[in-house]
């Protein structure tokens, strides 16, 4: 039976295993014998030692006895007593050790007997000394009996030791022999293992070589079969001979790695070969498209009907053409293609590498397939040509027959018609005369009607053009009026704001009051312009809707925060009520337009409700319809006026002496917007008792029903959840049926409650956090959008905030930036839980800590513990590491205010030692330290598990190279360079990282911080290009921006702006008006973007049109962002900070 390689390897492994097991067993047995032998050797040594100890004990006893006899003192008996007591134990021990040796047992018995005699004699001598005195005792010793007994004992012990010495020699010899045998057997077995391994190695290597050879043969067969199969696929289909030949030569050249090739097809009956397919041939070779059989290498192969391989190629015979030049192949192979004994074609291939035997064998294998394919293609070609010829002849014959038949029929018909014509000609002539008269009369009538229709059509077209022109003029008028009104209004508002701020302190309170009135009136005028534009868009039907899923609780919270201050100012009771069990139902409508309608209705309610009244927003939702009811206890509307208040520019009291102002556009716009959303606004009111406006619309927007009023909703009175309803709310919250407003604790907050705001778009994780914080005795408020969270933070002022970084509407980083820029909120610690690794960004913006998701319970507990420790810690600890003592003291004075305890260190080593003893909340480090670099100290801090979470501010005047800057960027939370106003910046950063309450600071430090935030480093000394054709705008913007530390250059149109940019390539940002003469803002921006240097230059559009699509048009032109006139300076500065910071 022939064993496989696997079985051979297994057999070798089993043999080696058996041998190894045998070695192990034998080794174990031999080692056991060696151990036993060694044990017996040790046993003999032990017996000898014990015998010596018996003799020593006897000598000690005799020595003690003699000392006592001589001196008579008891202490000399101590060796005697000690030796006597040891003798018994030693004899017992020796007797036990020699229990296996009868001879030794006899010797031990004799020794024991002699020892007893000796101890008896010694006792008698001692007793005589005690009773009879020294002389008596001396006489007994002088007899020599004691010495004789001791000598006997010594002889008997020597006899016993001699026996043991004999045994010791024998046992040592046995032990040495066992050791030698063990080594010999081990070496023999090891040699056998090595021999077996060598034999197994040669057996396996031989099998592997055979396997490798078989694999190579299989690979060659697979290569041949794969090539054959793929070539057959290439030849499939009804291809023409030329197309088939080209496909064959392309594939063969690629598969055989040939650099050139040609395929000639044999012409029938003329002895020529025609070039049908070529691969990488030179032009000369292609021109020789026809060769005779016997001519050239291909012709010779055809003539001899055999394969020819040529290696010495004559110049110019077979040139390979490439885009880099021409080259000669080193090997040419010509193979005839034979089918049933007839020459079909010749394949000629050229290669610079040569053709292997496998490649030549492959060609012989595929030649039959190629012959069949070419023969079939030629046959199909001939068949097709014959078929076409036959069809053409048949069609010509059929056409001739058809023509002959048609000619005969025409002749027959003409004959019949001629006969009938002669009979009917007279009758037709009479009827024709009468018909002509009737047709002439009808034609005159039709011509008259056609003329009237053409006149009516022209009149309709004229009216339509006039209407279109009027509508266009109206839109253009409104847009232009918006521009013309906003342009001067822009200057008025900016200059009025500057006067209101009164930074130069040159205006009195009265003048500042005038400026405030100007600004307020300008803002009202702007609102009026916006309302007129809204009305025009609604009337023209150009209003565009953005239908999204709307959360009703978000709408309610937004309106609550928007109107709470108005309600408080007018002492009006403002409530929002809704059914908790239905508030989670999503609706699909335009969020912006819905909020606009409700704002208009609530604004009217507050305007017409006096002090002490009430305004209620009642929300009801059914399966199909949502209803918002705005109920007020104001002046009401008489029934006679209820029909006109929805008309544009109409009010219930339209007299010149009316008490309440307004344009009368709000309700008109709201009604049209309601129709656009597929809803309706209804009114119930009574003069002097208040009004109820109900806006009802479909739960899901239906474009086909837009413009048609929805069914009015059933009015249900819904109350805000009472405090005693808390348990039921919690139960519903746990079931997951409520939105964040109903699930969280915002309606259950009492005075002195600890409040946590959770801003997280993952509702499941937000609820987990809410339950967790409730267990920690917090009242939780949830928000799923960034903008909602920011509003809730401003309204509730929580003790701490948990924030996700990836949020809808407003990103987490923007929420954090706005929180830390708000003096009333920046002290609140913000804990980041995010799935994106934005740790450095978060900490630089002032986050308390950053933990990457997924978050464990331990992470949450640790984070809350740190936050609570920080909040409870009224006295914050700050470490200042600065070697200059004066600067160190100056920083302490700058930062200190009673709520911060500052520690000073003047060297890196000292600082690190202080950090081990004290727990700091923030560290300020200078880079120039005497004993180590500040960067090295930073690396030590960040490398310590106990210190790496402490915020570190680098405060240095050193010029940093790229490497230092990169290292600092990784290690420090922020870097403040020592400049003219760096101390103010340092104070701001310390306040940010220590989360200090800005209002608790001294007033002069509050002013420093506010001033810093207005003239920050991002804007200071930056160059801005203002492009506007209105000099009033340029004047007002220039004054406002220069006060913020910006340097301004101006241009009156786009063309001038491009020239100025070339003169001032260091320009940092451009403010571009859109509507300008000569070259407008769009064209100017496009031209600027064509210049590589200004490809990323921030360009902010300033436009007064404020029409739908303007922003998109600006961005398409290449502008970075968009601000509508009149420009809000704070908004513009904020936008400029964002783009300049990037």
From TrEMBL:
Annotated CDD domains: HATPase_EvgS-ArcB-TorS-like (cd16922), HisKA (cd00082), HK9-like_sensor (cd19410), REC (cd00156), REC_hyHK_CKI1_RcsC-like (cd17546)
Domain Response regulatory: 755-868, 877-993, 1023-1140
Catalytic reaction annotation: ATP + protein L-histidine = ADP + protein N-phospho-L-histidine
One MF term in the entry's GO annotations: phosphorelay sensor kinase activity
Region of interest (Disordered), ranges: 389-410
Listed InterPro entries: CHASE3, CheY-like_superfamily, GAF, GAF-like_dom_sf, HATPase_C_sf, HATPase_dom, His_kinase_dom, HisK_dim/P_dom
Keyword field contains Cell inner membrane: no
Pfam families in alphabetical order: CHASE3, GAF_2, HATPase_c, HisKA, Response_reg
Residue ranges crossing the lipid bilayer per the database entry: 9-28, 182-204
SUPFAM superfamilies attached to this UniProt entry: ATPase domain of HSP90 chaperone/DNA topoisomerase II/histidine kinase, CheY-like, GAF domain-like, Homodimeric domain of signal transducing histidine kinase
SMART domains: GAF (SM00065), HATPase_c (SM00387), HisKA (SM00388), REC (SM00448)
EC number: 2.7.13.3
All copies of domain Histidine kinase, residue ranges: 480-701
Coiled-coil annotated residue ranges, if any: 150-177
Sorted UniProt keywords: Coiled coil, Kinase, Membrane, Phosphoprotein, Transferase, Transmembrane, Transmembrane helix, Two-component regulatory system
Entries under PANTHER family matching the protein: HYBRID SIGNAL TRANSDUCTION HISTIDINE KINASE J
Protein name (Swiss-Prot/TrEMBL): histidine kinase
Organism: Puia dinghuensis
């Amino acid at each position: 039976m022939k064993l496989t390689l696997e079985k051979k390897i297994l057999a070798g492994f089993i043999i080696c295993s058996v041998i190894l097991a045998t070695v192990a067993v034998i080794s174990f047995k031999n080692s056991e014998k060696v151990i036993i032998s060694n044990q017996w050797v040790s046993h003999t040594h032990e017996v000898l030692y014990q015998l010596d100890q018996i003799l020593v004990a006897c000598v000690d006893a005799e020595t003690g006895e003699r000392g006592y006899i001589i001196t008579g003192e008891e202490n000399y008996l101590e060796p005697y007593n000690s030796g006597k007591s040891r003798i018994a134990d030693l004899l017992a021990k020796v007797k036990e050790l020699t229990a296996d040796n009868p001879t030794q047992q006899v010797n031990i018995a004799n020794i024991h007997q002699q020892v007893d005699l000796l101890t008896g004699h010694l006792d008698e001598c001692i007793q005589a000394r005690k009773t009879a005195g020294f002389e008596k005792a001396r006489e007994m010793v002088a007899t020599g009996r004691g010495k004789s007994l001791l000598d006997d004992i010594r002889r008997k012990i020597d006899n016993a030791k001699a026996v043991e010495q004999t045994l010791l020699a024998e046992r040592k010899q046995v032990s040495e022999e066992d050791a030698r045998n063990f080594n010999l057997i081990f070496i023999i077995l090891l040699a056998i293992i090595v021999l077996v391994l060598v034999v197994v190695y040669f057996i396996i290597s031989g099998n592997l070589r055979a396997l490798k050879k078989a694999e190579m043969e299989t690979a060659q067969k697979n290569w041949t079969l794969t090539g054959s199969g793929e070539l057959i696929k290439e030849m499939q289909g009804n291809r023409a001979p030329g197309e088939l030949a080209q496909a064959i030569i392309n594939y063969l050249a690629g598969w055989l790695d040939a650099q050139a090739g040609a395929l000639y097809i044999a012409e029938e009956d003329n002895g020529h070969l025609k070039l049908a397919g070529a691969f990488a041939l030179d032009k000369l070779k292609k021109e020789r498209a026809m060769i005779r059989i016997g001519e050239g290498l291909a012709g010779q192969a055809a003539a001899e009907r055999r394969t020819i391989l040529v290696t010495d190629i004559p110049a110019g015979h077979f040139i390979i053409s490439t885009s880099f030049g021409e080259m000669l192949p080193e090997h040419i192979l010509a193979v005839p293609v034979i089918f049933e004994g007839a020459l079909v074609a010749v394949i000629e291939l050229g290669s610079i590498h040569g053709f292997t035997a496998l490649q030549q064998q492959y060609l012989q294998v595929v030649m039959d397939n190629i012959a069949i394919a070419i023969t079939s293609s030629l046959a199909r070609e001939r068949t097709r040509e014959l078929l076409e010829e036959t069809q053409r002849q048949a069609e010509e014959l059929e056409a001739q027959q058809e023509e002959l038949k048609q000619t005969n029929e025409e002749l027959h018909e003409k004959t019949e018609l001629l006969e009938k014509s002669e009979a009917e000609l007279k009758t037709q002539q009479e009827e024709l005369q009468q018909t002509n008269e009737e047709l002439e009369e009808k034609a005159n009538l039709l011509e008259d009607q056609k003329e009237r229709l053409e006149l009516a059509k022209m009149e309709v077209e004229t009216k339509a053009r006039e209407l279109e022109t009027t509508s266009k003029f109206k839109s253009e008028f409104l847009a232009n009026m918006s521009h013309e009104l906003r342009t001067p209004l822009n200057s008025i508002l900016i200059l009025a704001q500057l006067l209101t701020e009164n930074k130069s302190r040159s205006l009195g309170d009265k003048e500042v009051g005038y400026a405030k009135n100007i600004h307020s009136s300008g803002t009202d005028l702007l609102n009026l312009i916006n309302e007129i534009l809204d009305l025009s868009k609604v009337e023209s039907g150009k209003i565009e809707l953005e239908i999204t899923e709307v959360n009703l609780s978000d709408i309610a919270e937004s309106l609550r925060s928007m109107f709470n201050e108005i309600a408080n100012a007018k002492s009006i009771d403002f409530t929002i009520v809704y059914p908790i069990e239905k508030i989670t139902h999503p609706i699909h409508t335009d969020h912006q337009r819905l909020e606009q309608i409700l704002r208009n209705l609530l604004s009217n309610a507050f305007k017409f409700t006096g002090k002490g009244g009430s305004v209620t927003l009642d929300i009801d939702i059914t399966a199909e319809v949502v209803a918002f009811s705005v109920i007020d206890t104001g002046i009401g509307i008489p029934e006679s006026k209820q029909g006109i208040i929805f008309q544009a520019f109409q009010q219930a009291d339209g007299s010149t002496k009316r008490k309440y102002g307004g344009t009368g556009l709000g309700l008109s716009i709201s009604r049209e917007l309601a129709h656009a959303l597929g809803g309706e606004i209804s009114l119930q009111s009574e003069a002097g008792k208040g009004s109820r406006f109900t806006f009802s619309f479909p739960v899901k927007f239906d474009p086909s029903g837009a413009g048609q009023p929805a069914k009015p909703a059933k009015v249900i009175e819904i109350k805000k959840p009472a405090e005693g309803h808390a348990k039921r709310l919690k139960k519903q919250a746990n079931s997951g049926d409520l939105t964040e407003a109903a699930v969280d604790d915002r309606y259950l907050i009492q005075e002195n409650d600890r409040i946590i705001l959770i801003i997280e778009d993952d509702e499941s994780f937000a609820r987990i956090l809410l339950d967790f914080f409730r267990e920690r005795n917090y009242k939780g408020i949830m928000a799923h959008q960034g903008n909602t969270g920011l509003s809730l933070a401003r309204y509730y002022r929580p003790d701490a905030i948990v924030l996700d970084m990836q949020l809808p509407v407003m990103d987490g980083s923007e929420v954090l930036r706005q929180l830390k820029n708000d003096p009333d909120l920046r002290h609140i610690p913000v804990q980041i839980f995010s799935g994106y690794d934005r740790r450095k960004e978060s900490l630089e913006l002032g986050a308390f800590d950053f933990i990457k998701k997924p978050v464990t319970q331990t992470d949450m507990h640790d984070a809350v513990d740190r936050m609570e420790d920080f909040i409870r810690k009224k006295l914050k600890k700050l470490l200042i590491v600065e070697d200059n003592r004066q600067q160190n003291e100056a920083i302490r004075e700058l930062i200190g205010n009673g709520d911060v305890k500052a520690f000073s260190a003047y060297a890196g080593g000292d600082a690190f030692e202080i950090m081990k003893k004290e727990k700091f909340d923030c560290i300020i480090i200078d880079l120039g330290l005497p004993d180590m670099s500040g960067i090295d100290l930073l690396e030590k801090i960040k490398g310590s598990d106990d210190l790496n979470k402490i915020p570190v501010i680098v405060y240095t005047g050193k010029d940093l190279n790229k490497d230092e800057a990169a290292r600092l960027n990784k290690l420090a939370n922020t870097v403040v360079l020592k400049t003219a106003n760096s101390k103010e910046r340092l104070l701001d950063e310390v306040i940010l990282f220590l989360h200090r309450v800005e209002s608790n600071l001294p007033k002069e430090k509050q002013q420093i911080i506010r001033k810093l935030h207005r003239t920050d480093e991002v804007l200071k000394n930056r160059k801005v290009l203002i492009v506007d054709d209105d000099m009033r705008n340029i004047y007002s913007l220039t004054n406002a921006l220069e006060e913020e530390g910006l340097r301004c250059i101006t241009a009156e149109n786009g063309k001038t702006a491009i020239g100025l940019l070339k003169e001032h390539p260091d320009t940092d940002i451009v403010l571009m008006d859109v509507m300008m003469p000569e070259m407008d803002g769009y064209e100017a921006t496009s031209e600027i973007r064509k210049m590589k240097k200004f490809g990323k230059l921030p360009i902010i559009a300033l436009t007064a049109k404020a029409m739908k699509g303007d922003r998109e048009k600006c961005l398409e032109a290449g502008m970075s962002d968009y601000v509508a006139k009149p420009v809000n300076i704070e908004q513009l500065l904020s936008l400029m900070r964002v783009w300049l910071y990037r």
